[in-house]
Amino acid sequence: MKNTFKGTARRWLVVGGLLLLMSITSVGFVQAAALSADEISWLTYMREEEKLARDVYIYLYNMHGSTIFYNISNSEQTHMNAIKTLLDRYGIPDPVKDDTPGEFTDDFAALYKTLTEAGSASLVEALKVGVFIEETDIDDLETGIASTIRRDVSKVYRNLLTGSYNHLDAFCSNLTKRGVPCEPYELPPEP
């Protein structure tokens, strides 16, 4: 009788554990489904914006050979990966359909062209483009942080924000070394 009771207790313990595990995973699914449209929009936008930064920096590194662009492009890849992890976690389709540098949706394709053309003029202009990208990224990340109630999303955005401030400092430092003030940069008007 004692062995029968132990066997029954074990089965109930296993069944209870499985039910607990199922309820924990279903709570995670319910949480994922509860992202607001604004949160989803910002996550997908930030994924493409981080790709834009990476791709422009790769282009500018190839154009000018300055290691600042190589190093920061690698950091931007890390930023892209962090956003992709969130997209996967919440079951959101990845807007980056083609990871080839320079391949984007229409809006980002035009901006990529504008930024690479502006940065091609000289290394100083390329550094100014870096300032523009990081200032834009900082503004967008701050808006993204304000748009979410999710701790994991906010944490990723805050980490990316710290990275963007570091990148901005690096670009400004490189401009200052060249006797150029680090000021907010405006893109040249489109033709």
In total, the number of domains comes to 2
**DSSP helix count?**
6
Q: Give average pLDDT, whole number.
A: 86
Taking the alpha carbons of the first and last residues, their distance comes to 89 Å
Write the layout of secondary structure elements.
Elements: H1 2-33, H2 37-64, H3 67-89, H4 106-120, H5 123-146, H6 151-177
Helix pairs in contact: 2-3, 2-4, 2-5, 3-6, 4-5, 5-6
Describe the structure concisely.
The protein has 191 residues and is mainly alpha-helical.
Fold and architecture overview:
- This protein has 191 residues and is mainly alpha-helical.
- The protein is built from six helices and no strands.
- The chain is 78% helix and 0% strand.
- The chain folds into two domains: 34 residues; 142 residues, Ferritin, core subunit, four-helix bundle (Ferritin, Up-down Bundle).
- About 10% of the residues have low confidence.
- Helix 3 runs antiparallel to helix 6 and helix 5 packs antiparallel against helix 6.
Question: What features would you highlight for this structure?
Answer:
191 residues, mainly alpha, Ferritin, 2 domains, 6 helices, globular
